[in-house]
Amino acid sequence: MTLTWTDWEDDPSASDGTPPYIDWLRTVTFGGADTRDGLSLAPLPLSPMAARICGQTHRRAPLPGFARPGPDDSVSDDPLIELSWMPDQDCAVVGVIDSAIALSHARFRRIDGGTRFLSAWLMNGTWRRGAAVPFGRELFRTELDRLMFSALAAGGIDEGRFDRAAEASQYPHPRGDRRLDTHATHGTSVADLAAGFDLRLSSEDEKRRRLPLIAVGLPPRTSMGSSGNFLEFFAMHAVEYVIDRADRIWRACGHGGEGGFPIVINLSYGLQAGPKDGHLAVETLIRAVDRAAEEMGRPVRIMLPAGNDLRSEGAAVFDLGRGRPGRLDWRIRPEDHTPNYAEVWSDELPGDGGASPAHPVAVSLSPPFGPDGPASRGRHGQCATLVDSERPDVPVARIYCRRHDDAADCGTATWHRVGYILCTGPTLEEDRLYGAPSGDWRIGLRSDGDATRAFAYVQSDQSLTFGSDTGLVPIFAHPAFAPVDEAGRAIDVADYPLDGSAPRDTDTAPPMRRRDTLNTIASLCEARVIGSYRATDGRPSGFSSAASLDPLGDGRAAPTALLPGEDGAARWGVLSAGSKSGSAVAMQGTSFSTALATRRVALAMLDWLDDGRVGEAPGSEAWFETAALADEATAAWPGQTVPEKAGFGRLAAPASGRMER
């Protein structure tokens, strides 16, 4: 194997707006083709608001053929809304955007046994002619109820039979989604914590009636991408869908007048790497949604997780002043079945940078026992590729250079940044893949001008097969960074003494850091961003990500607040619904804290509606600040927190009707 880097050259994918993650996946995994193993990468339409933001109508996204319209099919403009029960004006809608949601679960039923879901969009479902969704399958309440009652068996609902009939579980297709046939799923647990109720408790009847749900079932990881390559595409569709269907149902119910149902949307997904300045396309869309809701006078609250990446060893900031170089190892693991990604971003630069701005920092990337390259700074729209002279047509690694700015919000960019996206192939060699070397890849950074800072992040990585661990997350490695203390305890951003004294900063070994690990799509201030704490003593959870002390652009300096993400040091996670009725499972992470925050806001919305919609609706930043102050005073937890980790502080979990552990 003789590896060489090409010089910077024009990147054809930049001219048509294809993101680097998508181009690299198509190059390495699909072999440059549009189809592979039952998946198609043919372009799909962006959601209407996303199309305006991105300046394009379509984008490549992998979905199986059965989930796509045929070449001669057209998507309907108006869905046929079929509801066996109409929600009243005193209802608030809870939107759950997640994977593998058990739609027939007893925690999501009405008192008469029917479903509380007004509609559900299963993005991996079979597309039906005349549907009003651009891919996948949409079901309204009447069809869901019919399928549920068709699955009656021995006085109960055969939920597995329902899942197969609704295509929430897909056995006939090799690319079908079968996660609901495991004991627990992320989506069911999140939906339960956000809006699940015990059918046996009559005290919950009114809450069940007044909190209907709209679900979006995200496709499997084979379509989302091992590194969340397509999360933005599907998430933007999902957010617009929830709001559109809630408003259409309001009108179909004949409620009329201004406003509509208050909406609380739970999107418990995220990314690890990115610009983190509040201006990704999905963040711009959320900001536009928030602005439109304010103008309409109807609240829409979008809840996002802070992320679980504080201990991921995947964030670094470099001080490149006075010509000092920066160096860092990017440790890529052997037998990894998925591509690996990292990003290196510049500081903010004034203006739009022109047609092809150069990155102010030069980057070099060298594989283990391989050459450094490229030798100079890249410009927007360029790429450099690492190839083996024996197989020059099969890339081993690539660096893309792309511009990022705030133009989508204000029309003309007031600032821009330039980023390098570093990509390698899987380290597992197989017939259709050319394995990249595993080990420490050396990243070198050098500033030739006035630039003094660069920001580096490792991207998320998950196995494409549910339950597998074949997708191995790389890390950064630096001799000055210690992941644990002398007693073997993982180090947090602060030590949180139990005597109530001020926490001491423990994140003090540059360039790597634990701060600035906040979920990349949760960097904007218009969404609520929720972290985790331990319910027994209030200690912020070690996995819960922290914001940067010096955020860039319009990024966040702190999450909004913390809610429980683990019951105690010896009681892992928080209890939630398993994938079938009557089962329970402990799940841990900020996704589940976010779901509890969604539940708390949704219940508070009902009180706000009872008061005649007077004053600011629950779920604003100010509302969380007030609630945190009150709950902190009541609980009297022994230790303090720090804002970049805890935001306004800790909120108690709302009652879920479950027995305490």
TrEMBL record:
Biological processes, Gene Ontology terms: proteolysis
SUPFAM superfamilies: Subtilisin-like
GO function terms (MF aspect): serine-type endopeptidase activity
Matches recorded under InterPro entries: Peptidase_S8/S53_dom_sf
Protein name per the record: Uncharacterized protein
Source organism (scientific name): Silicimonas algicola
